[in-house]
Specification:
Layout lengths: L10 H4 L1 H7 L1 H23 L32 H37 L1 H15 L3 H12 L3 H28 L2 H8 L4 H37 L10 H10 L9 H26 L7 H12 L1 H7 L4 H8 L11 E12 L2 E13 L4 E6 L5 H9 L6 E10 L2 E2 L5 H7 L4 E4 L13 H12 L4 H14 L5 H5 L8 H13 L5 E5 L7 H18 L2 E6 L2 H7 L2 E6 L2 E7 H6 L4 H8 L12 H7 L1
Parallel strand pairs: 3-8, 3-9, 6-7, 7-8
Antiparallel strand pairs: 1-2, 1-4, 4-5, 9-10
Helix pairs in contact: 2-11, 3-4, 3-11, 4-5, 4-7, 4-9, 5-7, 6-7, 7-9, 8-9, 9-10, 9-11, 10-11, 12-13, 17-18, 17-20, 18-20, 20-21
Bound molecules: adenosine-5'-triphosphate (ATP).
The site of adenosine-5'-triphosphate has 13 residues, from helix 15.
Family: Belongs to the ABC transporter superfamily.
Protein name: ABC transporter
Organism: Jiangella anatolica
Length: 605
């Protein structure tokens, strides 16, 4: 089965509702909410007794032992009937509050965030003023002084809490407004109405939904709280008023507290869980299931060996299943055998790395080339043990100096990463933390990998900055990432990667984000460092020029599989696969493949 054969459907297209049903918690919450919503609608027809009807004979009657199924309250009214009759009021409160807050807050937030200018200033000022108003005190005054209905009170409360929605939507919209695809939509001539509806609103919908559900739950809780304080409408049953009655009766019939509390707890937590589920589904967030559930899932998809490997089972198991695929007699630095990485979505699998096997010998530079999405980065991340949690390492083995890496606990991987193998990423500036100086990040990395004191780590960091060709190491050491150029940032990352003399360096398109002249300098630097230290290098690139310049051997990947592998000279002069020929045909310059140096040959020996 290949990635092409198993086309996984995106979760959003399958529908949010189906995704919610797959998660037991959100499915249960949906059932609870649906049940209460149905009860709210049909309650006039299913009430066993009128909710305010008094039967003194059944005052404080015990549950399940009289005409009243859940017992009678201290006035002799049927608790079940009052519980059912309160449902409509609770849902009304939730709906009114969230609709008012969403309509006011979202509309104003979208306009202020998208257009800015005067509307933004005025709206920000107004919503700040509304925020300063003590909402609960206003509500209490409305009830006591004006005797308004719960619906009006909730509408006022919705208005008073709308600033929280306004600020969130405004901030999110301002961020999205600056995205390149929004600029592109403007350039394409789309009217603002369409841009806001199609691009902005879609991008910010997940947190908005989360807040709506939060508001709905808050509406129910606030209404119950006010009723609990005795501020509700007399004669209209509510869960809050039931709690007040039960509280006054706590020494006589404490069980009367249970029913309204359970109803309130169930509905408010169902709103919260569903909103989290919707957010996760819309954003494609991976919700980590328990290890046992994940094991069952993977076993169902692939069988038990993959579950062992993915969830950190014994490394021996992984080695045993794949040892037979190893053909090399000497111990290579890195040996990847039959690696298969897949992602599950909705019960189907997408294989992104399929049966990948290759070696990196000590002191050797191996390039992995291929089009975008061919699985290069996934192979590197599998080696580093940095695949996302949802990834399934379905089969295979990755050994560093003979030690199996797949299935190693994170503690052991931490000792290997940075120390035995290091990584140089593609986007230098996004891989440096903007909150810390270059120096403190280097020192932190060095100290995590060695027993160096702070001073030793500082000296080593400065020496490494000097070694990677930074003219004024101390100045760069003290700078923040935004104060240095992309090329300098890549040098800093290379300095950090090689500081602890790893035996294997994994570089994922280390020059792609840099301009052409800097690319050449960074490649020179990598070549020099490799020659000096004798480390093995696995370099991912789109560019056959980089391969010609730097590598001894090349692995060509397409759609998750290796289509060709060989010494650079051979692949350049006699490419076997049509796809390799096509890639070579797209190389603009005529860079000659590098001949292996005598030193490298010595290192192999
Ligand atoms: N978390 C994920 N869930 C599902 N699929 C993923 C995930 N991460 C990566 N993929 C898929 O794995 C495939 C291989 O991705 P990979 O990043 O390895 O490609 P690549 O060859 O490095 O491409 P590029 O050169 O563009 O970085 C892609 O089709 C990608 O969509």
């Amino acid at each position: 089965m290949t990635g092409r054969a198993i086309a996984a459907e995106p979760i959003v297209r399958r529908g949010v509702f189906r995704a919610l049903l797959r998660n037991p918690l959100t499915a249960a919450s949906l059932v609870v909410l649906a049940l209460f919503a149905v009860i709210a609608i049909i309650q006039p027809w299913i009430l066993p007794y009128p909710p305010n009807e008094v039967n003194l004979r059944l005052t404080n009657a015990a549950p399940f032992g009289s005409d009243y199924l859940l017992g009678g309250d201290n006035y002799g009214r049927d608790i079940l009937s009052r519980l059912i009759a309160s449902t409509r009021g609770a849902f009304q409160a939730a709906a009114v509050l969230s609709v008012v807050a969403v309509v006011i807050g979202t509309t104003a937030g979208l306009i202020a965030g998208y257009y800015g200018r005067v509307f933004d200033s005025v709206a920000s000022w107004l919503f700040s003023a509304i925020m300063a108003v003590p909402a609960v005190i206003i509500l209490i005054s409305l009830y006591t002084l004006l005797g308004v209905s719960t619906t009006v009170a909730m509408a006022v409360f919705g208005f008073l809490v709308s600033p929280s929605m306004f600020w969130m939507v405004r901030t999110l919209t301002r961020n999205v407004r600056n995205e390149l695809y929004v600029d592109a939509a403007r350039v394409a001539g789309l009217p603002d109405r369409r841009i806001v509806g199609r691009h902005v609103l879609i991008a910010i919908r997940a947190p908005v939904i989360l807040m709506i559900a939060g508001l709905a739950g808050a509406g129910i809780a606030v209404q119950a709280g006010l009723e609990f304080l005795g501020l509700g409408q007399a004669g209209v049953p509510s869960w809050g008023a039931m709690l007040t009655d039960a509280f006054g009766n706590i020494y006589v019939a404490p069980e009367q507290l249970i029913w309204p509390a359970v109803a309130l707890g169930l509905v408010t937590s169902a709103f919260t869980l569903i909103s989290i589920g919707v957010r996760d589904t819309l954003e494609g967030t991976y919700v980590k299931p328990s290890t046992r559930a994940r094991r069952r899932e993977i076993e169902a998809l692939l069988g038990s060996a993959a579950a062992e490997r993915t969830l950190g089972g014994t490394a021996d198991a992984a080695t045993a299943t794949t040892a037979t695929t190893s053909t090399s007699t000497s111990q290579p630095l890195l040996a990847i055998d039959g690696l298969r990485v897949a992602y599950e979505s909705g019960g189907s699998l997408t294989t992104v790395v399929d049966d990948v096997s290759f070696r990196v010998e000590k002191g050797e530079v191996v390039g992995v080339v291929g089009e975008s999405g061919s699985g290069k980065t996934q192979t590197v991340f599998a080696t580093l043990g940095l695949l996302p949690e949802e990834a399934i390492v379905a089969r295979g083995s990755i050994r560093l100096d003979g030690r199996e890496l797949l299935g190693l606990p994170e503690r052991d991987l931490l000792e290997i990463r940075g120390h035995r193998m290091a990584y140089v990423p593609q986007e230098p500036l996004s891989n440096l933390d903007p909150s810390f100086t270059v120096g403190s990040q280097l020192v932190h990395g060095i100290r995590a990998q060695s027993r160096a004191t702070k001073k030793e780590a500082r000296d080593l960091a400065l020496a490494m900055l000097d070694r990677v060709g930074i003219a004024d190491p101390l100045r760069v050491y003290r700078r923040y990432p935004h104060q240095i150029s992309g090329g300098m940032a890549q040098r800093v990352l290379i300095a950090g990667a090689v500081a602890c003399t790893p035996s294997l360096l994994l570089a994922d398109e280390p020059t792609t984000a840099l301009d052409v002249t800097i690319q050449a300098e960074v490649l020179d630097l990598l070549r020099d460092l490799q020659t000096e230290t004798g480390m093995g290098v696995l370099i991912v690139t789109h560019n056959f020029g980089v391969v010609a310049d730097l590598c001894d051997r090349v692995v060509v990947m397409r759609s998750g599989r290796i289509v060709e592998e060989g010494r650079v000279g051979d692949v350049f002069t006699r490419p076997q696969h049509e796809y390799t020929r096509m890639l070579l045909g797209s190389v603009l310059d005529n860079a000659a493949p590098r001949e292996a140096s005598a030193r490298r040959k010595a290192a192999h020996a």
